[in-house]
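pasting for ref
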Amino acid sequence: MGSPEYTSATFPFFVCFLISIATFHVCFCNGISSSSNHTQNNITCFENEREALVKFKQDLKDPSNRLSSWDIGKDCCQWAGVVCDNFTGHIREIQLQSPDEDSFPVTFAEYQVYLRHKLQGKVNPALLDLKHLQYLDLSNNDFEGTHIPSFIGSIATLRYLNLSRAGFGGNIPPQLGNVTTMRYLDLGHNDGLLCGNSHWLSRLVLLQHLDMSGVNLSKAFDWLQVMSNLPSLVELHLSGCELEYVVSPSSTNKINFTLLDILDLSSNNLGSSVPGWILSLNHLVSLDLSECGFYGPVPSGLQNMTSLRVLDWSMNPFNSTIPNWLYSLSHLQSLSLHGNLLHGAVSTAIENLTSLISLDIRSNSLSGPIPVSIGKLSSLIRLDLSSNKLNGTLPRSLGKLAKLEGLFLCYNLLEGVVSDIHFVNLTRLRYLYAGWNNLNLKPSANWVPPFQLEYLYLDSWQLGPHFPLWLPSQRTLSYLSIVNTRISDSIPTWFWPTFPKLEYANLSRNQIRGEISSLRNVCRLLVIDLSFNHFNGPLPLVPSNLTWLDLSNNSFSRSINHLLCGEGAEPNNKLFFLNLGNNLLSGKIPDCWKHWPYLQIIKLENNNLAGNIPSSIGQLSNLRSLHLRQNNLSGELPRTLQYCSFLWVVDISENRFTGSIPPWIGKSLSILIFLNLRSNNFSGDLPHELCRLSSLQIFDVAHNNLSGPVPRCFANFSAMAKINNSRAPIFYNIGFGIGDKLVLVTKGRDVEYSTTLGLVTSMDLSGNNLSGEIPEELTKLVGLWSLNLSGNHLNGKIPRSVGDMRQLESLDFSLNQLSGEIPSSMSSLTFLSHLNLSYNNLTGRIPSSTQLQSMNESSFFGNKLCGAPLTSCNPIQTIPPKVEPPGSEENGEGFSEASLFGSMALGFAVGFWIVVGPLLFKRSWRIAYFRVLEGIWHKLCDFMF
């Protein structure tokens, strides 16, 4: 969960809105008013205007029935989103906006409601019949990529038009320039919206607020001249418009933002340094140049912009210290410098920024202590110093910041004891994010905090061994995270009832013990994470509105049925993450998944579950990730699983599944990224339908009973054929940035991947009965990181173009019947760190390369090879026993060096005692044996002499 955003009601960034209020709403002193007073005048809407609204509604899709009040038999001035003039009765405003991004829901079910709330369809030209319309707001809807209607340019009375985040696409109609009465125009954040020529804007001489954020202006080369000469423009937002600073020096004298107070050019490519015309705007009140590609020192010209109250300079790689002159901008109220590669200490001169309301310098490389003088910033409401290298103790002066509402210190190197003095005057504190420091909270025995927190994040602090006694005082908590805080207690009886507003609870990675019978009484809980503790007993009953449940890595036992299908279990239409892995659960997987329709991730790995996968799993149409590895499951895969067509991850390895690999996996699960069927009892050929899995990055069917050839069409795994070092991890972004964690066997070891998972591409077909040649087509998978074909019956030569697979780090062809020479192209595998070609019929010299000669001798044993790293040609071939699935071997995926020499020693011992044992214990055998030897010796002497 990220830091909460502050709204204008919570955090007074009033400067950002002051201009628009003062300039726009004053203009509309007779304008915007609610419809609540209109009934006092007994005014009803006009018939022709009511009919126009009915036609307008007919072209809209309204999934949530928002417009149910739009009934022809009612007064349209009372319809939802319609505002009439109090005196004339004419329709003056249409307000049909949906909730904006700040209201974006957290749970999957709420997300569905949010989507249904959006209007869709198209805008009907019946709006032209509203001759007095001044205000039109259709923002945050979804008009499905349709063009902005050009007829809007004929609504001559329009003063306010907001079509932001409404799903419009294509070119902006230049007819909008005909609405010369326009004061407020917002077309921002519509994906695919284009503006090739901005000249039409020049006619909007009364325009005060312009927002075209996200509109592609890369072809509108005249944007700067046109917009800078709008005589009334006060506020300009052009974030993410693909702008480049291409204005010639001779034209800069035409740039004349006379009244401009607020300028946002963030997320554009404005060059390496700040254009001079921006630094010349000394009258600016708010400036946002975040993510513009600037680097070098922070430009000193900023110190001349004495009117600035809001400055956002974040996400520019300045890679410098904080300049001393910045501390002299005592008029600044909001300063954001996060993600700028800033380093060095924070100066004690920070006390000069006496007007600061918000300070954000997170995600830099700042070091040294937090200056004590920070306690003099008496107006501070939000302080974010997180994700730096700040060290030393927490200054007690923080307790003087009486207006502070949000304190963010997480991911630093702070240490030492924190006492009640640090919080003495923080009566308004609501957000405390200070996790992942080495801090020890030791308040006085009877301490009652002066604040009432909503968000508390103290991960890795020392709070234990018992639950803190001050915690029950925080009855307004909605977010609680106390991960890895050395609590070794059982959960007190007061804990859950104390927090009636709690929605997020993360108590993972402690030593909390005991049983939990039910969590039903915490009815608002959305997220519960109790993983990596010492809980035991049966699984608890959980609230029906839960979205996330993680009880993994405990000692919960008995059946899952108790949680999912028992008498006390309630159907849940919100849960999308369920992790019960690494417990002691037993019995069968319940067959009642229809009660959990929104599940996206199921993790049941490393338990004692038995029986089949139930057929009702196919009713989980939203399922993305299924983890059942390391259980005792058996039988064939249910055909109903093919209905889970959105699956990205399937891991059913290390079970006892039988039958053939179903062809429908390739047909129905076409977007699979990770498929792991390792260490089961699958048999038969590899179906060619698997070749349709073009998104597959990881494919593991090792240690089964598969036979037949390796399909040549595996070259169709196009995700393995891409050389891409920036592939993103597998994320599930429904309210949370959830990255999947997957276990892969590589180089003989189990390795867990999470954040780097997107970079991994692997194919493991080892330990089967595959035959035929290695297809040359496999070498087209040039993005493959690991390839293991060991322990099969493959013959023929190693493909000559194997050297094209230059991303390979691990390659294992051992224990086959391959022949011929090692291709010289293998010298090109410069990333190779693990190679095993042992126990084949390879001949000739080992190609010369730094990588190949750095391998261990055992990589080439059991062949007829010469050259380094072998110390002799044709080393003794001792065929090891059939390879079992790897456990914790350090070298080799098919077998290890240790197991090789172990088997040699065992063979010697057994052979020695088979021969020598009887000679020691039976005298007649010894006599006969030595007589035979004596006879051989005499014959040999006769032959030689």
